[in-house]
Structures are given as structure tokens and as C-alpha cells.
Sequence to fold (468 residues):
Amino acid sequence: MRFTRRGFMAAAGLTIGAGATTIAATRESGPDTRDPPPKAEAPPATEPSPDFTRFASGDEWDNVRRQFTFSPDMVHLSALLLAAHPEPVRQAIEAYRRALDTDPTQYVHENNDRLRDASMSAAARYLGVETKQVALTESTTMGLALVYHGLKLKPGQEILVSEQDYYVTHEATRLAARRTGALIRRLSLFPDIGEVTADAMVGRIVENINDKTRAVALTYVHSSTGLKMPVRQIADRIVEINKKRDEADHVLLSVDGVHGFANQDITMESLGCDFFVAGCHKWLFGPRGTGIVVAGKRGFKDVLPTIPSFTDGASWAAWQKGRDAPDTIQTGWGLMPGGFKAFEHQWALAEAFKFHETIGKQKVAARTAELATRLKEGMGAIEKLRLITPNPPELSAGIVSFDIEDMSPNAVVRKLRERRIIASVAPYARPHVRLTPAITNTPAEIDYALEELGKIKADPPKSVSKRS
Ligand SMILES: Cc1ncc(COP(=O)(O)O)c(C=O)c1O
Fold:
């Protein structure tokens, strides 16, 4: 795991004379900004800032960690929210930005193909598919909206979703149904997460698929509970169901994969779904404002574009000849939203994939599991803490969710921040606290978090002064 700026720059083919400008450290801004907890008190000014570099791993993982500019006085355990950029990504963005600022017209003209030749092909390599199976987006949200709004749905057909999915899947499918006359069927995956099993969830899903079901919309790793879905088992059952259906009515499996992407050792083949959608600005530590939609073996024939593509030659050619573009999208180019972009971010995405591949997908997954398991095991000894995330690795990934008796999740996040630990809460109806170990963390940080978690207590109730 050796990262040198030169090696990465050369691999990226960056020939412009960009200096090694260091961008100021991006400080994790805390929990989901759509539901921010009250601001924490700053730790007392009299105390010197601690330097958590003492929590180094003492092994090759320290080299990975050195690629980031996280503030050293905090333990960053919310990498799932919004990525910090590692050195190679930072350098590539900076180099492209400088070049674009010099002559945007010429530089875009000469480099536009990097979207396909660098970024899409890197995503394709990473997930074991062909480049044409990938579309670049700007977020998971945009990708899911493109898939569900674009789905060729007939009135009366159904999209099956689960109660436990995230806001974006619920909203994108709801809006798509409203426009097309399709229906949404919602099921609960389990009555009690403490007793959840893969077989029971697969059974629930399969028994809710009927003749009208056109798509099953699921989330790979749930951002509320950290539950990992048995996507492959579900896909296998859907293959069986589809054997008895007309090709045009096949049930499609679409997955919001963002919280299993770049922390699980997966390919499209291993997942078996028809659409895998993820943001690249979370666990991949890719440029902020990047994401992907990846199609399985069926390709993109079941969706129509929602936003005019700038990169699909067939659409341009049809328009120039005064004709309609073909109804079937042949490649990811067709689904990919057009418009000029933050090209420095879209192009630098290739560096994020290389960064992970240099470490090794399998190693990243094993490290994430090692740290998450250490955290979950340690939590078992903390009184008043109720672990929400299932223990078995086949039902969990890097998100560790929990509650603390008598404290709201936001109060726990605030208390942890006072102790210099960055946790988060997602804006679900039933929120939980999340700590999310990633490849940027160390076992010593997990132990520190556990020690501090054991100390936090609810504030005593405020005394109400009685008027005499
Ligand atoms: C499950 C899930 N999907 C999608 C998103 C949104 O991701 P993005 O910011 O890439 O749209 C989040 C969280 O922000 C999430 O938890």
C-alpha cells in the first residue's frame, strides 16, 4: 500500500504543471445536515487540543490514513456521510481545476472523453462490468431518481419497496408511480431487528412479488440500522420467478448500494441485481458530487432517460436530423444527465477507484469488518447501550447503530462530540446513533470511542424553580 503523488499523477495521465497545492483540511461537519443535532459545546479552551495521531495503527494502514487531512484532534467515525478526499483525489481535482481555469473551452474539448475513458471505465473495472454498463451521476439520490423515473412502467404495475428503505427510494418511487399510474407496495422486512434472518427477509420479499410487480427497490446496507440485505439471495429467487414471465415483464431488482459500496468486496456478478446505484462521495472517498448507476446483464433497455444526455451520440444525431431519439438506451451514456459539470470532480473519480484498488477491495472489506466487529463486541459491555445493528457479518457492514437508554440519539451525538468523537444520526422516523468505522480508522480509535461511550450519561433533569 504505497501511495506516491507522482505515481498517481502519472497513472492519471496528468501532464499539466500543477503545483502541489494543499487544500485546507475539510472538517467533518457532523451528522446529516438535513437533521442536524444541536451544536455541541466546544471543549474548554483551556485544554490543549489533543493529538489523536497517537491512535495510529502502527502498520501499513497508517499509510492510508496519511493520505487524508482529517483534523487530528477528533476521532472521525462518520465517514459514511460525506467523503474527505485522499491525497491522490485532492491532487487530481486541483490539477484539473487549474487547467480548466486556464482555458476551459479548449481543456473540456480535449478532455471530455475522460468521463468514459477514465471515470466510467474505472467504475466498470471496479465492479467487474463493461464500461457501457455504467452511467455517471452526481449522487446516489440522482441515480435512484434516474432509474425509478425512467423505468418503463405500465399503469397498474407495482414497485415493491420496504418500510425500512431510505427517504430517497421512497420518494423517487412514489413520484414515479404518480406520473405513470404504477402502484407502490410496501412491506416490512422484519417485525424486530433483533431477530432478523436473511431467509426470513428473502421469504417476505418473494411472497410479496405478484403478477403486477415490475421492480423490487431495496437498499443494500440500511443507513438507519446498519442492516445488510441478502441481495444475492433475493436476486436468485427473482431469476426463478422471471423464468415464468415474458421478457418485457421481468421483475427488476434495483438497489441503493451506497453504504455497501467500497466497504464490501462485491461485483455486479456477485450481487446479481439489475441496477446498482451509489454515490462515490461516501465510503469510496471519491470526489464530492459524484455517483454511479450500474446496469446488470439486461443493460439499460428498461429505462428511458430523464435528463437529456450530452454524451449519447444517437440522441444528438437524431435531434440534428429533426427526428426523435431511439426509445431504447444502448449504454450508460444514454442515461447520464447532460449539462456541463464540475469536470474536475467527475474526472478525478478515476483516482478514487485506483486508491481503493491499490489497497485491495478484499483488504478494505476485511478491515471494515474487523473494526466494526471490534466496536460491536465492545458495546456488549456497555450498560444502557442497545446495539441495533445485527452482529453477523453477513447481515452487517460498516455502519454500527445503537441507542442509549434515556438519551435521544442527538444528545448522544452531542456528548460524543464533546469527547471529540464524531458520530451521526440519520433523519429516519425512528433515529439511532451511528458510528461507522472505515479504512481511515484504527483499532485504537475504536477502543477510545468505546471507553468514552461507557462514560456518557444523560444530563440531570433541569430543576424548575417554583414561584413563591
Ligand atoms: C441509504 C442512503 N441512500 C442515499 C443517501 C444519499 O446519498 P447521496 O448524498 O449520494 O445522494 C443516503 C444518505 O445521505 C443514504 O443513507
Observations:
- Residues 361-379 form the longest helix (19 residues).
- The domain at 49-78+360-453 is CATH 3.90.1150.10 (Aspartate Aminotransferase, domain 1).
- Confidence is low (pLDDT under 50) at residues 5-38.
